[in-house]
Design a protein that fits this description.
Length: 312
Amino acid sequence: MLAIDWAHTKDFAIYDGKTAELIPWTEVIKRVKGQDKAVIEHGAPLLYLYRIAKIVPTYTILPNFTAKERTRLGLEKSDLTDVKIIYDLASKNGLGEETALDGIDAWVAIPFSLLKLDDSKLRLIYLYHQFLYSLKAQIATNNLAKCMKRHFGDIENPTLFLLSQHIDEFELRCQNLRKEIEKLAPEPPDKIIKIRGISKWLWCGIIIFADPRLFETKSAYRKWCGLMDRKSINYKFSRNASRIYYLCADSLMTQRTPYWREIYDRTKEELSNREGYTHPHSGAMNRLMTAFANFVFVTVKEEGIAQQEILW
């Protein structure tokens, strides 16, 4: 088994149970060959995951478990320290199929959230990354076009014409990617699919970027999703998870879903009447995102959604 830590330097830290060292990416591929499996931190760039997963069975482990173990052992943070911890956690909990839950090979060593990746899951993750990238580009281009119209009016402008073409291209690409994701996405649990505005592709995004089963408490889950007070609390969060919950909240708000739209309206009215508060819409959206994230966490964790009913 080879443990890999990719996050903190231009080189990669690897550990095979004997020697920990820093090596370049090209050398990582050489070292992976001949191993029976590889373990890398969850969130690694897809380029690395694809290349490694094509060579050996690949597992991921959430960074917060590595950090917890480092703190428990009283060790200083470094790439070489982290890669040894990743190796030890994987060895301690096992990566063989005999540890899978209910015969599902995808899930092993649940206490440390080790996840086996195969081609179908990697493709779904890849498509979702492409969708979010295209959506971000569409929004940025649309904002630029609005800014130009505000300054120059509706006069004929070659740049504005090109921007409008790009907006249409990005919108079409987002639509096509959503269709591809819908084909591969699993069916959401009953409690989720019954909510108007939450479709399969949104649920799939939650499971890919913010799976509630990987967190022990609501507060830890909200931190990961960026749904805490960022001004007073210094922590790292997943921007993709935050973006997915914003898309969920936007869908619930625009489709006027009962109960959820009421949270938005009530919060927006409350914040509008608050002296000195200048962004009631943003505050209302944040509260709606938080409420829905709590609901998803409870539905999945506390009500025992079976492993087979979700993605992995």
